[in-house]
Every structure is written in C-alpha cells, then in structure tokens.
Amino acid sequence: MPKVVSRSAVSSSTDAQPTASSAAALRVYYCICGEFILVIDKSLAALPRRKTDNAIVVRSQDTDVAKARIFKLNVTVNEPIFLERQGGHEKQYRFNCPRCSLPIGYQPTPPPIKSGPFVYILPGALTQMQGQIPPDAFEDAESRP
Hints:
Residues 21-135 form the STEEP1 domain. InterPro entries: STEEP-like (IPR029704), STEEP1_dom (IPR057965). Belongs to the STEEP1 family. One of its GO terms (biological process) is endoplasmic reticulum to Golgi vesicle-mediated transport. There is one protein chain. The chain is built from one helix and nine strands. By secondary structure, the protein is mostly beta strands. It has one domain (24-127). The mean pLDDT is 86. The radius of gyration is 20 Å and the shape is globular. Strand 6 (88-96) and strand 7 (103-107) form a beta hairpin. 19% of the residues are buried.
C-alpha cells in the first residue's frame, strides 16, 4: 500500500473580507536587461523625487513623521563616489544591476542597503515590464551624474 506523505485542503469564499496582506499590492521592477531588481509596496511613480538629480526617494527607515517603505533590492553595491554639488560634495554608494552593471540607484551611507534613512533610484533605470525600456530612460541623460 502506498504511503501518504501529506494531505491538504484548500477552502475559499467569495464572501470573505480581504485581509491586509491581500490588499497590499507589491510592485515588481526590472532592469532594462530583464533582471529582477526591486519589489516594493508602492508604485515608484507615486514616490517623491529628489530635487538635485530627480532620483526617486525611497524611505528606508522609520521616523516619527513617516513609516519606511517595504522593499527588497537585488543589486550589487560599489565603492563610493564623490559628486560635486552646489554647496559642497556628496558621497554616494552606487547600486548596479547584478547582470549588466547598469547603474540603478544609490544611498549616501555605507552598506548594507537600507543603512541610512533613504535609498535613491535613478530616473529611467527600472521598468515594470521585462524587456521594455521605461519612457524616462533617455530624458535628461546629459544632466545625470
């Protein structure tokens, strides 16, 4: 007689109220090369932009004023670079795609990722459709760092 390893039953109801986890839609973003890069709890288009370079601001730590975004990045972190900004210099730890090394974003604090209050995603670096170039990929390419 065959041995029964496990048994399971699935039950669902159309009358059930949605739970917090089912209502929370996660967004997935890819590099232009098709590599999975980011999963986040809110659309990148709905997040604020940084004035200095138009990068998307992702809050990575809770404060008294706002909660951190829930997100996971699949990137490689490089050595820091220094950029000349109005009024001084800025140190950035750049994130690159693990497959094609395209710049994805940065944070001002040393690794690990989410070690500082914000993570910044470069405009035009990510797309929601694999193999599709985002519409803002080539906008202001000359003015980027």
